[in-house]
Amino acid sequence: RKLEPAQWAVCTEDDFKVRTYWRLEMKDAITDRPEEDLVAELTERFDEAVRLRLVSDVPLGAFLSGGVDSSAVVASMALQQPQARVKTTSIGFSERRYDELAYARRVADRYGTDHREFVVSPDALEVLHRIVWHLDEPFADASAIPTWYVSQMARREVTVALSGDGGDETFAGYAQRYRMCRLEDRIRKALPAWTRTGVLAPLSRWYPRFDGWPRPLRLKRFLANVSRSFEEAFCRDMAFYFKPEEKEALYLPEFRKLVGPERAEATLLRHVADCPSADPVTRAQYVDLKTYLPEDILVKVDRMSMAHSLEVRAPILDHHIVEWAGGLASRYKLNGVESKAIFKKMNAPRLPAEILYRKKQGFVVPLAQWLRGDLRGLVEETLFSEDSAIGELFQHHTVRALWTAHQSGRFDNATPLWGLMMFALWRRTEV
Predict the structure, then answer these.
(1) Is residue 215 very low, low, confident or very high in pLDDT (cuts 50, 70, 90)?
(2) C-alpha span between 141 and 66 (Å, rounded)
């Protein structure tokens, strides 16, 4: 098994002990200090965290996505090194909806960085087998692909790169998910139990799922979540690939016996219980900091960068910043509909408003289109060939139904299909 974050193991001739050397405390903090003072304190802590990570005896640069976090890091680097041009690297996509190169270029131009760009296309997935090998475990976050390429490109110029990783978890950047946690919690507390279980729960089962509907009409998950407890709703939202009942339909009986009765959600529930805060946003952040950040985001960046012998440093995850932000009430981070509120105010003098306040895009790839186009043959061969590892563990008809529904264009099943494909590729990979 893995050591969890902030753990170390001691092995002697007689014993093996695992110890925790640091714990993150997140409480319902209330402060009457002027916001200007908090912004000034955050600025000092942030610049100090960046300064410490500029110490290097090898060439150093930064990833620049065009989002708030990486742009803030680049701005701080440039302001602290006015005599040198920061080397920045950006990745984009030919699909305009997913491309952020124009925003990255805006920041690069403002600070006069030595800037390089690369556009990822489906043809670039010829390296997918190498990516699977370097990941070294089943791993289905598709943003590993652009992370591979941005690391490869950066390594041509530098040996160390600073990144903006950790900003979303530390300052509540997953605005839509965190806002819904807060809204659902308010409605859940306002409605009597019989309304939630006797009306909303049946209504959620009846309400159809159709990904092509306008977002305001996609109420199925909202109705279901309000009828559940915070813990159960949060766990279901974090089941990005398959919900518990979907796993039941997916697993072959033999595999279900091997997996046993324990559900994956148990890990999330343990961390929810550990959080001392009653605030829904703080609780969601806490679990993300304990699970999604170390088991997905940082795994992806660490392994894709080290595949190219590149060291990546994340100033926002300096423990002084994380502890400080953990002591702030959630309203300083998610202020109404605005995510990362205090972090954005800190960066207002440094970054254009179109960088700070545009809709969050995230480091995502156009999977749905790729699986219906250039990658269709690869997925079909990986999932449905006679030697596919999928048939050993999963129901063929369930996987085929997911694939057919996705190809119809009426449903977006790219995430579970990609997870199944990456699992099958990992099963084929030789050590």
Answers:
(1) low
(2) 20
Instruction: Give me the half-sphere count of Cα atoms (radius 13 Å) on the Cβ side of residue 69.
Output: 24
- The average pLDDT across 220-238 equals 89
Please report the pLDDT score of residue 265 as a whole number: 86
How far apart CA 324 and CA 321 sit, in angstroms, is 5
Residues 6+ apart with CB under 8 A from 287: 234, 238, 268, 271, 272, 275
What gap in Å lies between CA 102 and CA 108, rounded to an integer?
A: 10
Amino acid at the residue 262: E
Residue 86 pLDDT > 90, yes or no? yes
- Please report, to the nearest 10 degrees, the dihedral formed by the alpha carbons of residues 108, 111, 112, 115 taken in order: -30
Query: Is 354 exposed, middle or buried, given 0-12, 13-18 or 19+ CB atoms closer than 10 A?
Result: exposed
Helix H, strand E, coil C: the string for 160-225 is EEECCCCHHHHCCCCHHHHHHHHHHHHHHHHCCHHHHHHHHHHHHHHCCCCCCCCHHHCCHHHHHH
For the chain, first and last CA: distance in Å? 18
> And the tokens for 147?
């992370």
